[in-house]
Amino acid sequence: MNDTPRIEVTVAAPVDTVWRALRDKDTIRHWHGWDYDGLDDEIDLIYFTEVDEDPAARTLSVQAGDVIRLEPDGDGTRVTLTRAPRGVNPDWDAYYGEITEGWITFLHQLRFAVERGPGAARRTVFLTGANPSGRSLAQDLGLPLSGPVATDLLGEHVTGEHWYRSANQLGIAVDAWGGGLLVLSSHGPVDGKPNGVAMALLSTYGLDDARFAELRDRWTAWWDEHVDSGE
């Protein structure tokens, strides 16, 4: 049985626009992952080191053979990432499930950046911990799994819309935070994460230092009280 994961995201933008968002380092930094000291090195490693790029075909083979393909889809672009089969690079097999989850997050972050395109620089809050039972962070936070969002979220009334939902992740476009994005990942043990994962990633745009610090501190305090650090 072929169980090679395949992730598809449709972006409401032309293929050329999405391709530029994948090949320009400054643009990638605006959507990929989260802020930390090694982000630039991570971007270089994933998108520019030992890659096989075909600009004409709009395909990009990265690292251990994961292939990103862009194709027109009406007025938009279908982005498809096909994971390399297990065994192609044994060094990465131990993290296979974790990498797949990471790609789901990254592709939806790409779509968000291209479609919403906040002009201000991004600042993120990234929180992670263990989750051996696979408990739902969305449920813990009282977030609806569908429909419009208008709810109290850790002491802040937020409105927005569901951006995406996968088996283990929930993304919400938040009207606050400068037009931000909240990604929650909740799942039990996978390759590379034997104690499971609880992850919250808040992407914010244009917040002043005081507002950003307040948001970060409020989420960190809740996280420290409710989520196992995994240590």
Report on this model:
- A 6-stranded antiparallel sheet has the order 6-11-10-9-8-7, sandwiched between helices.
- It is α+β, with helices and mostly antiparallel strands and 231 residues long.
- The mean pLDDT is 93.
- The chain is globular and about 50 Å long.
- 31% of the residues lie in helices and 32% in strands.
Label the structural class.
Answer: alpha+beta
Name the CATH class of the largest domain.
Alpha Beta
Q: How much strand? A: 25-35%
Number of domains: 2
Q: What's the assembly state of these chains? A: single chain
Termini gap: 36 Å
Radius of gyration (CA) equals: 18 Å
Which strand order spans the largest sheet, edge to edge or round the barrel?
Answer: 6-11-10-9-8-7
Overall shape: it is: globular
Q: What fold name goes in the CATH topology slot of the largest domain? A: Alpha-D-Glucose-1,6-Bisphosphate, Chain A, domain 4
Protein name: SRPBCC domain-containing protein
Organism: Actinophytocola gossypii
InterPro entries: START-like_dom_sf
Features:
231 residues; alpha+beta; Alpha-D-Glucose-1,6-Bisphosphate, Chain A, domain 4; 2 domains; six-stranded antiparallel beta sheet; five-stranded antiparallel beta sheet; 7 helices; 31% helix; 32% strand
Layout of SSEs?
Blueprint: E1 6-11, H1 15-23, H2 25-29, H3 39-48, E2 52-54, E3 59-62, E4 66-73, E5 76-82, H4 90-93, H5 96-116, E6 122-129, H6 137-140, E7 149-153, E8 156-165, E9 169-174, E10 180-187, E11 197-205, H7 209-226
Antiparallel strand pairs: 1-5, 2-3, 3-4, 4-5, 6-11, 7-8, 8-9, 9-10, 10-11
Describe the structure in brief:
This protein has 231 residues and is α+β, with helices and mostly antiparallel strands. The chain has seven helices and eleven strands.
